[in-house]
Amino acid sequence: MPLSMYQASVPVLLHALGNLSAILNKALLNAESRKFDAAVLLQARLAPDMFPFIRQVQIVTDTAKGCGARLAGVDIPSFPDTETSFDELQQRIAKTVVFLQGLQPAQFEGSESRDIVLKFPHQTLNFTGQDYLQFFVLPNFYFHLTTAYAILRHNGVPLGKVDYLGGGG
Amino acid sequence: MPLSMYQASVPVLLHALGNLSAILNKALLNAESRKFDAAVLLQARLAPDMFPFIRQVQIVTDTAKGCGARLAGVDIPSFPDTETSFDELQQRIAKTVVFLQGLQPAQFEGSESRDIVLKFPHQTLNFTGQDYLQFFVLPNFYFHLTTAYAILRHNGVPLGKVDYLGGGG
Questions:
Q1: Distance CA B141, CA B128 (A)
Q2: Chain B residues contacting A, CB < 8 Å?
């Protein structure tokens, strides 16, 4: 039996969001043990014209909830970008997890061929549901997750690939 | 019609490998215009205990060819890690593309439930084909692709998200 759109999206996103939450906990503990303000990490970035850590985490959750909502055909929950702490980022991740957990596999049936339209300030992107998942959601989701991880590694937070992939990966 | 294992893997990997090749070209041109030896970028890394750029690119191709071979049930082509230039990395990407292009969708039928065993020096991982693709291949592939991109951005190579996602993304 081939992959369903639900199986190809929701469990994957939930698994990675759990890994991200654990990574944030490790970063916070590391800041405490090295005696610097963890808020410094929230504003850290890899290049002056790349987003800081806090924005990378916000976009990870935006990509996940946007995917779940669009493929299930429901409204995208709006999370204002007002976080200023690790604790508030954890709450945002948790809200995203609860939203995705509330979606049912039946809502995703037929979503592979559904028209998905993404409107940005300077362009509009049109996808089928399948292309949206494969060529937009997953590469973007992992891009921002990896960049968040890389910002922490660049700043000396002790993490390894197993933290990114999760247990058994 | 749900996703086939072929559609969920080969076209996705080929698209991203094409993007990576274009990113390498931009990095090489940028080194020339800034008048430094591009080989410096090959050894650049984001943390002392992370792999350098050249290894990130090698792992991207390893992950892609390993995925294609394991899911199609054929031998994994062996590429020795002997590259020392952008040109040789491009040849490795091109060999990976040719290998993936030679695989047929029919070879992937039933691969979602095939047993996949990955042997590492200190552990052995067991997956179904579907879990291997979703929880190992795609996160790893995008991890190393994004880290390669981030190393270049950290070193001032002018790239944007569109280079990573490819045209229209």
A1: 18
A2: 1-5, 7-8, 11-12, 15-16, 46-47, 50, 112, 125, 130, 134-136, 138-140, 142-143, 146-147, 149-150, 153-154, 156, 161, 164-166, 168-169
- CA pair distance B117, B127, nearest whole angstrom: 6
What average pLDDT does chain A have?
96
B5-165 CATH, one of 1.20.1260.10, 1.20.120.450, 1.10.600.10, 3.40.50.300: 1.20.120.450
**Which residues fall within 8 angstroms of residue A15, CB to CB, at 6 or more apart?**
A166, B135
SS3 assignment, position B3: strand
CB within 8 Å of B93: residues ≥ 6 apart: B17, B20, B21, B24, B57, B61
pTM for the full predicted model: 0.97
Q: Contacts from B113-118 at CB under 8 Å and sequence distance 24+? A: B114/B71, B114/B73, B116/B70
Residue ranges for chain B with pLDDT beneath 50: 168-169
The string of pLDDT tens digits covering residues A39-93 is: 999 999 999 999 999 999 999 999 999 999 999 999 999 999 999 999 999 999 9
Report the percent of chain B where pLDDT is more than 90.
94
The reply to whether residue B112 touches residue A1, judged by beta carbons under 8 angstroms, is yes
Output the pLDDT for position B167: 74
Domain spans in chain A, listed from the N-terminal domain onward: 5-165
Write out pLDDT tens, residues A157-168: 999 999 999 974
Q: In this structure, which amino acid lies at residue A162?
A: V
Per the document, the length of chain B is 169
